[in-house]
Write a structure and sequence with these properties.
CATH architecture of the largest domain: Beta Barrel
Structural class: alpha+beta
Radius of gyration: 30 Å
Order of helices and strands: HEEEEEEEEEHHHEEHEEEHEEEE
Distance between the termini: 100 Å
CATH class of the largest domain: Mainly Beta
Number of domains: 2
Shape: extended
Strand content: 25-35%
Length: 323
């Protein structure tokens, strides 16, 4: 081995040793950071658990569920409904009332960092906690990562004792819409009745009722689960299955209609695939079915929100049989 070869090998060995030392140092720093983060999470989780222990056994009822703008309605008409009744029998479990089962169900509480924890099916961030009231912010978590929401939802609870003995009221009174909600819906309804494209879902969805035996109408439903009611989801886009007998021919169409504030049914648009060459004739057929069969065979009631009638949109699956 000559001198040049020897020096080359020595330099490469030195570079390799330096690289290994730097990599090892970086790994150690990374491991230390991970361990520090775990320790911090444990401290924060223990702090939240201790706060929960302070209200152990106290029964709470949700009285408000609102967006961060203070309203309980979204622009599409989705209404946040306060529906939880909870108590914490221990620092790591919660009792939640199930409207469907008519009883309280027990679920574990999983604590995380920064006052964040999981209760049954929901991830929540504790905003404040008192013996007479609580507030949580609902979080959207996907693959253990909190999704940054542009709009936040806040749940406010009062203790049952505070509602009865301090406020001297009941939950039905506390659940009534605020004046801001009422003014907001009045404004939205007036706009939708002028401009149909501003239609929004009614908390009392538009209804279709058959007037004779030549038509049947069935509204599709959404099943509740064990923990919460999903009935409020069904009003966002009510869907009706309609069957017409003794039609001019056999057909099957999917399309949406407006139901205006007077209960008139107005064709909106096709919601099924159609080849370009058939698009015009298909749309014409759907409009003809709406203006003919549906207006003759059905009675429609306008959708309402807070008792205010307004334009809303419903989806129709219409099947016709010639015989």
């Amino acid at each position: 081995m000559n001198k040049h070869t020897s020096r080359f090998i020595q330099r490469n060995i030195l570079v390799l040793v330096i690289f290994v030392l730097l990599f090892a140092g970086k790994c150690n720093r990374g491991l230390r950071a991970i361990e520090a983060e775990k320790a911090q999470k444990a401290i924060e989780a223990a702090h939240t658990k201790n706060l929960i222990n302070l209200i152990k056994g106290i029964k709470y009822t949700e009285v408000h569920r609102r967006f961060d703008n203070g309203l309980s309605f979204s622009p599409i008409g989705f209404q946040l409904v306060p529906e939880w009744k909870i108590s914490f029998p221990s620092g790591d479990s919660v009792n939640i009332y199930s409207p469907r089962k008519g009883k309280f169900l027990n679920a574990p509480v999983v604590f995380d960092h920064d006052s964040i924890f999981n209760v049954a099916w929901a991830w929540l961030k504790l905003k404040y906690i008192k013996k007479d009231s609580l507030q949580f912010m609902m979080l959207h978590v996907k693959d253990n990562i909190i999704q940054d929401e542009k709009v936040h939802v806040y749940m406010t609870f009062y203790s049952n004792d505070y509602i009865k003995n301090v406020l001297h009221t009941d939950t039905n009174t506390l659940w009534k819409p605020s004046r801001r909600d009422t003014l907001y819906i009045k404004s939205k309804a007036a706009l939708a009745n002028r401009i149909p494209d501003s239609s929004f879902a009614g908390t009392e969805p538009a209804a279709l009722i058959a007037k004779n035996k030549l038509i049947t109408v069935k509204r599709e439903t959404i099943e509740d689960d064990d923990m919460e009611s999903k009935s409020y989801d069904a009003y966002l886009l009510p869907t009706y299955d309609i069957t017409i007998y003794k039609a001019y021919q056999d057909f099957s169409y999917i399309f949406s209609v407006y139901v205006d504030d007077k209960g008139n049914v107005i064709f909106r648009k096709s919601n099924q695939f159609s080849y370009p060459e058939f698009k015009e004739s298909t749309t014409a057929a759907m409009k003809g079915i709406t203006d003919g069969y549906l207006k003759a065979y059905l009675t429609a009631a306008a959708g309402k929100t807070l008792g205010i009638p307004h334009y809303s949109i419903i989806m129709l699956h219409v099947t016709g049989y010639k015989k």
